[in-house]
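G., the chain you wanted modeled:
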Amino acid sequence: MQWVDFLTNEAATHSLSPEQTAAFVERLKNENLGKSQVKLASELNIGVGVFKKLMTKVYNKFAQSYPELATSKSRGKLEKLRACLRAKYNDKQDFDVSTQSNATHTTIKEIHQNIPTAVPFKRFVGREAELQNLHSSLQTSRQVAIVAVAGMGGVGKTQLATQYAKQYLQNYQGGVCWLSAQGIDVGIQILRFAQLKFNLIAPDEWELADRLKSCWEKWQQGEMLLVFDDVTDYETQVQPYLPPESPRFKVLLTTRQEFDRTLPQLRLDVLKPLVAMKLLKSLVDRERLKNEAWVARRICKFLGYLPLALELVGRYLDTMPDLSVETLLKRLEKKRLEHEAVVKANPLIRYEYGVAEAFALSWEQLDEKAQGLGCWLSLYGLADIPLFVEAIENEDEQEFWEKATTQLQKLHLIQWQAKGIYSLHPLIRQFFQMKLDESTEADNVKTAFVALLVEVAKQIPQQPNPEDIFNLTSAIPHIAEIATHLSQYLSNEDLICPFTGLGWFYQNQGLYQQAESWYKLCQEVAENRLGLEHADVATSLNNLAELYHSIGRYSEAQALYQQALSLRKRLLGDNHPDVVTSLNNLAGLYKSTRLYSKAKPLFEQALELSKRLLKDNHPLVVTSLNNLAALYYSIGQYSEAEPLYQQALSLTKRLLGDNHPDVATSLNNLAVLYESTGRYSEAQALYQQALDLRKRLLKDNHPDVATSLNNLAELYRFTERYSEAQPLYEQALELRKRLLKDNHPDVATSLNNLAELYRFTERYSEAEPLYEQALELRKRLLKDNHPDIATSLNNLGLLYGSTERYSEAEPLYLQALDLRKRLLGDNHHHVANSLNNLALLYKFTGRYNEAKPLFEQALAICEQTLGVGHPNTMTIRGNYAIFLREIYH
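Predicted structure as tokens:
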């Protein structure tokens, strides 16, 4: 039922005349909030005196149902009547929804929300008018409505926002998304809400802004409310995450900050004296306060009518039934005097100290164990805190912690969120931190806490899979807390661990900016603490280089890899496993940019050094064997690659046994080689072994399974077994989308490969959209700066050429050629491939003078880089020979 309909029904229930009904409904409409009686009378075409008389009669009739109206002053009657009716309206809405949901023939549309659980009240006290003002401000905007509930800490900003979201939930059919500005990245919170509530999954490899844009575009219809709680920096916590301009999006902020006048604000002050007493009465037995009413009013005044302080003191009184209100006031007055000078020095401190003293009253009721637990919890970040007491093995210790948790929860010093999950209000957290800092054990407690979180950080693998990310997400804000605010308590040995783990966590979700910031901070902290000449500085340089390498920022990656290698050699000497790693990484970058002549000696050094240091008895030797073999494979030296791959496979089995994922990797590598040399039956057997092993070990829930499916499908395609290849390509694509969230370079590879199959089987209309998706995804992920983008441009050009759309194919070939030259240099066999394709296009369109020099350039490059007998060289030589026969005969 709409508000106006409800008012009309209430008018009928109270036997209002038509004239009284008109005045009553007009006065109570949401859109008329704040309008003067003169304005309303004018809109009803009656005099203001008549309007006032009609409203007086309305109040008298409603006083029969609400006696408090009879005792209210004329100026407060409207506010009290609105509050009474609004409470009845909300109760009716809840009843209607409950009733309808029990009817088998009625379907109720769920309104998706994640509004935090509030401390229950019989009725929300003291902010009825503010709720109306807030709703009016949000509804009147013609674009994105942004309203900030601003004020000093403790005035109830979050509680007001919570109550508003709950009371007006029916107005927001598009959902209510509650965001903590002080928790994990706000953008990630929005994406998680969209995924959990609407199943909107934006690809992980997109930039965060693109992922958010996609979610806003697909958001459920209807007005939606976005709440940013506890904003301290509008520019970084709110502005980047705002939805597009549309009147259906409403944005509500709670903040202690004061923004300029361009942002509408509802300034929330402390409560009025009578309302403060009303709040206290809702928490403490009325008879008890009635007997000491004068003292109770003095307590309200002493607390400055601050809602948070009133609530804590009220709950304290309720847990201490034998404590007189007067005794409590004396204690409060005594404690405040201890801090009087500070309060006068800075008015803003009045709140913090007033609230701290209110907290101290509860603190005194805690035993030592509960106080220690509160201090310990205050070291966590501002996010949900895992506190699984049952995991403690010692039963006596477990019982102690259970009692401590119960004490904190009963006094509302911690809030229960879910099983084993608690949260701390930011101010309570500050109070506990203050108490901890007063303790002589503060440094020991912080050192122990940091050590515990370091162990969690060590559990973050370098390449976390989706399950790892799910399990570790709740710990990330707390690891970030020790990295940013408690890094002085990190030992030198563990200094870079939290930063590195955070970088890995974000990098493998495609959140490259967040990963980069942690890697850079890691380097800065390591250099400041350990000096420029330290092995951990080299590690931090290497981690940042690997990120840049993965996203195609090759020049930056190369410089960092070289710094790391030089530093490791200087610190560790030439004979150290970390030097092997740096040699492999720098060589891998050269290989990625097809600088094979630079890569080869480094790979060879890495292999020789790893064998000498580790005696054929370490996985690093396997890595070096595989890397050098892959280089030989890339330049067509298959006879040199094969024994290295075989050695890697044999060593892996000896070190890890036959049933290990790394064995599947070695099988796969050797199969790729056999396929390239035409030994298809041997390749198929190895591909199948790798696939079966990965399925058995990884349970169809790992990207490596998709890789095996894809590779076996590629073999079937090359051997023209298209009907066998297609289902494997499709399975690989589906698995990668599910695991990698439709936003990873491997997804683009699967799209491209399936499109290639369709092109080979002349299903051009099915191939084209897949090529386009692969190209768009690679451009978004790799920023127009990666050889894979040139591959996508080239393949789409081949499709257009196959369908004789030569004018569309030519610019794609030219773009691919330009990109390959820029990234790989002029003398690279991929450049030769682009020259060959462009020459063929010119041949087909009769542009022979342009085609001939391109064929010649392509052939010269292949002969120089791959040799005269390489399959690619022979293909281009054949194309050129056909071309010459056609134009000269």
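The radius of gyration is 35 Å.

Shout if anything looks off.
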